[in-house]
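[audit] Reproducing an earlier prediction to check determinism. Same input, same settings, fresh worker. If the tokens differ from the archived copy the diff job will pick it up downstream; this log only records the rerun itself.
[audit] input (431 residues):
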Amino acid sequence: MRLERTALRTGARPERVLSLLDARARRLGLPAPAALTGDWFGSRAVIVPTVELRPVTEVDDAFAIPTHQPDLNSPANGAIGGGWFGYLGYDLTDPAGRSGTLPPAAWGWADHVLRLDTTGQWWLEALGPGPDSDALASEFETLLDGEPVEHGWTATTLRRPDGSAHTKAVAACIDAIADGELFQANICARFHGEFDGSACELFTTGVRRLRPRRAAYLAGDWGAVVSLSPELFLARHGRRVRSTPIKGTLPRRTDADHANAERLRRSTKDVAENVMITDLVRNDLGRVSAVGSVTVPELLSVTEAPGVWHLESTVASELAPGMTDEDLLRAAFPPGSVTGAPKLRALDLIAELEPEARGVYCGAAGLVSPVAGMELNVAIRTLEVTDGAVALGVGGGITALSDPAAEWQECLHKAAPLEALLRHFADERNL
């Protein structure tokens, strides 16, 4: 199999490209497109015009399918070409065996993609031999000269769970920490609402407004995942691996919140939260990495995300000889930042304290490519759409210093940008 690339004559924004491709898929009766926008594989966007994302219910298959890759006999040169698009839902590893409304996982193979590089150049990239690249490029250039048909969605308000129930769960977690059962756990809540409209346009409008670093759109007959995540779960390029866990949050919603960046870096509770999870990620990667290769090149960096400030750190390593992407996923999933330490006890406690399945939330979404490697986000700030309904999960890391009321407020801060997105569909999207 060889890599083929053709430069496209278009300057369209990723949101416009995705909207036009979605309309094309509907018109021709094809499976929906999928998209990764923000910071993926050193590019600004990776969009597959149509891909059949098939539900996967078995844990072994969910981890194994994206590792089935063809042999490539040409250099990558910064390209992506194609690969497995999909997601792994948190439900795959729920000790209680619960499941949400979307499939626990879904993967689909794409043999060509549209990629926007950091210079603003679009490329049609294909893993050949396949369709005539020049003819396909001409088709897409013509398509991208058109105007998207805007469907929008009906403004909706999410139903919040009882805040007192969440604070009781947080208090129970603090008691478990005091009893020596664990050091930290991530306790979450689910918001629900009705959804009538285009999940694709929900994603494109969310990307335009919120500019998430690790956004992913995945859809099929089963529903849609609208992930507006700021967090990298795993990146594997060659044999090098990287994970950037986010732990520690303060609001960033008004000018009065600017000082929270420095407060966050000096917060004993938030720093402890981050350091513990960074150590957990070191342990996860260490299980499949070469001895002595696990490092922490960045610790406790304050970053911006929609509505909040975050603390993030980076853990890097090199895969040990013989280790595969499947081994890496088994060692690291679900992400440490949304579970706790020790991870196994945290998983059990989460199942005990959270009243419903997390669904896709706290899982991972992205792409595994024979050309470019693997990149998956952490599926937070993620809306799950199916059968006229939408769900949003939010939560936070609980330590011995946590205040239950403050933890509930953190949930509300994280949910606020997405609640506003759902409530206020705007006509001035300028795709």
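[audit] rerun output stored. Observation attached for the diff report: The chain has one domain: 2-423.
[audit] end
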